[in-house]
Amino acid sequence: MNTLKKTLWSGVWLSFLTGIAAAITVTKASPALLEIQKELPLSIIQIGWIMSSAALATVLLGTSVGSLSQRYGPKRVLQIALSLIIISASFSLFINSANELIVSRVIEGIAVIFVSVAAPTLVSHLSKPSDMGLTMGVWALWMPVGSVLAFLIAPLILEQFGWRWLWGSAAFLALPLLAALAWLNDPTREIVNTVREKLSRLVIYKAIIMGLIFTCFTGSFFSIITYLPTYLIENYQLSLSEALLITTILPAFIIPGNLLSGFFIHRGAPWFRMMIYPALSLAIIITLLLQTNYPAEIGLLLLALMGLFLGMIPTAIFAQSPRLADKPIDTGRIIGIVITGQGPGILLSPPLAGFLIGEQHNWQNLYPLYLLLTLGIIALTQLLKSLQTDR
Asked: What angle, rounded to 10 degrees, do the helices at 342-357 and 367-387 form?
């Protein structure tokens, strides 16, 4: 942990905006896929793989990016990430096959894992210890805010310009952010050249457990957000624009969940309660959503509550992960291990959900998957709590 006496909020907000660019890069696939299907023949399982293939880099490179962030500094890693987003956006204008889509997603995945590791590492170094709950609460907004923006801009871009321009839309945010980063004073310069020691086995073990909690969280979020527009169109006879608008309810309510969790942690609430209690609530909500009949209005309320409780979990993950490190220089490697955990959830849950739904679109078949993921959060948090004293 660092010893700053004042949080450098300008850098925190710049890191957050970089996260939004990465989140748009990940989430844009969901609103774009229905339009892509009109041009390219895709099965429901292929849709899942196109959505999740961006996570391949997370699975393969998470810990390596943590080491890169430690060696060269998180600011430089963020600059590389934004450059990759811009390159991928240029490539998107020429996509004509499912294979090219997947190549594009892999490039984007490398950029996203760079951001996912380097940005919270930078935020942790920009924050005084007592503000960690607040700053990580802000950072944790990157995915829901980016998701909401992606779904809000999607109808306009799809109608006016087509799916290829939506595929490259994150570049319009990445370009000015790349310029702004050049002016950011990097607080990690002094520790980049510090002698690096091996992490203890216990620290690595705790980071892996936290990463598995992240796997369960991202699995829950991406498996539902990928197919939610299709579900709404099929079950409520909505237009694509209407379905995309309603889909934003889920990530939109993740935002207050992030903020509430950050506020409670800032006020002294134990980090593990911000994982266990929301996960218990999610198990109940998932049961009501997938196992009961209800009016459409109740369905919207349950969707909003799902987003609220989902949002509490990543804030606790980001707030506690830097505290697993014994020394500030180890923060990048710890976050790299933890962030690696988000990859399997993004990579495997959409195609697995697609397999369970099947070509007959039996949505209730998702219930065991969602229940397993939420119960996994509870069990893993209890295990980590037994190993980690509340700091």
From this structure: 160
